[in-house]
Q: What sequence folds into this?
């Protein structure tokens, strides 16, 4: 049996692609191995979004190429966004690569491995995976990502995603709900909904309220303890969607909404629109309609034209907005984007300094917000041993998304992995919380969920 090793880079959307490819390979009889050195076939699913991601992808390909020269590897397949940008260059400059697959070719992975470069791909520009696509989860057992759409119709000046992933294509509500049920049947308790712009979901098939309908439909999936929405676009966040979130008990009180900046001139140059005042009003409305919601946002510093005054506008906004979680990226010019011709006038050290200053501000805010949770008893999804020590068990509450936010570190009680238990928060740090599992915490959490589910299902 041929052994296949996988290296998956980039965002959760790319991880879903990797899991679909793994599902096809397992279905065709390939053995998936986590030990790359023993794999006869290596697949590198790349990211090509920004310079740092491209560099990481190239380094992974070179690592795989060295294994092909010196180890058990006989075939090297490269997939993903980097292929969409540089397919010809990769095949020319890296002769160790046997074949490339783009983002719309992933379900042909088994055929490509079988035939290599001799296999003629049949690209489908409208490709979408469905609930019928085989999928092998690589996330912890109780958590999974679910991609509700592919591609993007926005034209943000800094972003190359529409060229890599194509135009917006949404799955049907029925397809997404069917996959959610499949995931729950495998033991998944938590689902993170992802797409390039989840709030654009359904507009391509003429239903701007599709995400609202999806939220309510997922509220009827028995056993799905919570799901959260990632990659929301601010001007597509409707009152109807917010009310659906508030009225659906298993919709996590969480929203990931990348705003990218707060200075009106910079946002206009980014081809996004908005302003500090508009965003503050939006956040106030979100928090009013969905009380207790945790909000995450991402920002870009160093975009062309960002002077000190523009950065101070962003900094003042973050201070006022009091996000629960913030990510900060330094701008890098990308070929094929409208901002590329603007050059890269902000010095690298200035970008890094601004990034540090913004993160230091957010760290103080996050610590204060976490401190408010001390003494509370909350539901925590127990995930297992901490990466740094087996002496600590980690979990997350519904306001903490996997991989990008903090954890709840469990120091007492009887935590049970892959369950949701009641935990008392006893201490707070900037990003992590310290908690103790309550006696009977599993039963109490389960009973409360079942009561809420029955009540929602019986409601008119």
A:
């Amino acid at each position: 049996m041929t052994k296949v090793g996988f290296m998956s880079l980039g965002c959760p959307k790319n991880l879903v692609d990797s899991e679909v490819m793994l599902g096809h390979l397992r279905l065709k009889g390939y053995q998936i191995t986590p030990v790359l050195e023993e794999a006869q076939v290596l697949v590198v699913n790349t990211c090509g979004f920004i310079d740092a991601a491209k560099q990481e992808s190239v380094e992974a390909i070179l690592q795989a190429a060295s294994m092909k020269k010196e180890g058990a590897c006989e075939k090297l397949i490269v997939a993903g966004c980097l292929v969409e940008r540089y397919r010809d260059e990769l095949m020319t400059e890296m002769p160790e690569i046997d074949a490339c697959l783009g983002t719309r070719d992933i379900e042909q992975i088994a055929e490509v491995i079988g035939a290599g470069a001799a296999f003629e791909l049949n690209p489908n520009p409208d490709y979408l995976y469905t609930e019928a696509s085989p999928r092998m989860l690589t996330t912890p057992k109780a958590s999974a990502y679910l991609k509700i759409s592919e591609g993007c119709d926005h034209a943000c000046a800094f972003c190359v995603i529409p060229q890599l992933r194509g135009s917006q294509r949404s799955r049907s509500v029925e397809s997404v709900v069917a996959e959610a049920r499949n995931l729950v049947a495998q033991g998944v308790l938590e689902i993170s909904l992802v797409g390039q712009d989840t709030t654009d979901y359904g507009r391509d098939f003429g239903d701007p309220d599709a995400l609202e309908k999806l939220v309510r439909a997922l509220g009827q999936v028995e056993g799905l303890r919570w799901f959260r929405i990632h990659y929301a676009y601010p001007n597509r966040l409707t009152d109807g969607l917010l009310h659906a979130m508030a009225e659906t008990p298993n919709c996590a009180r969480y929203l990931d909404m990348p705003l990218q900046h707060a200075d009106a001139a910079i946002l206009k140059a980014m081809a996004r629109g908005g302003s500090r005042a508009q965003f503050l009003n939006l956040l106030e409305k979100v928090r009013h309609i969905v009380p207790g919601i945790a909000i995450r946002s991402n920002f870009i510093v160093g975009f062309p034209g960002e002077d000190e005054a523009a950065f101070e506008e962003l900094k003042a906004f973050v201070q006022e907005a009091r996000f629960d979680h913030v990510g900060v990226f330094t701008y890098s010019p990308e070929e094929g984007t409208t901002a590329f011709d603007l050059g890269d006038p902000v010095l690298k050290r200035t970008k890094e300094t601004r990034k540090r200053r913004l993160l230091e501000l957010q760290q103080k805010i996050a610590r204060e917000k976490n401190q408010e949770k001390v003494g509370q008893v909350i539901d925590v999804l127990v995930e297992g041993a901490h990466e740094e020590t087996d002496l600590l068990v980690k979990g997350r509450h519904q306001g903490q998304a996997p991989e990008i936010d903090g954890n709840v570190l469990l120091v007492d009680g009887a935590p049970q992995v892959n369950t949701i238990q009641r935990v008392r928060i006893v201490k707070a740090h900037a990003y992590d919380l310290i908690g103790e599992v309550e006696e009977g915490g599993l039963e109490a959490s389960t009973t409360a969920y079942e009561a809420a589910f029955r009540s929602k299902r019986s409601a008119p």
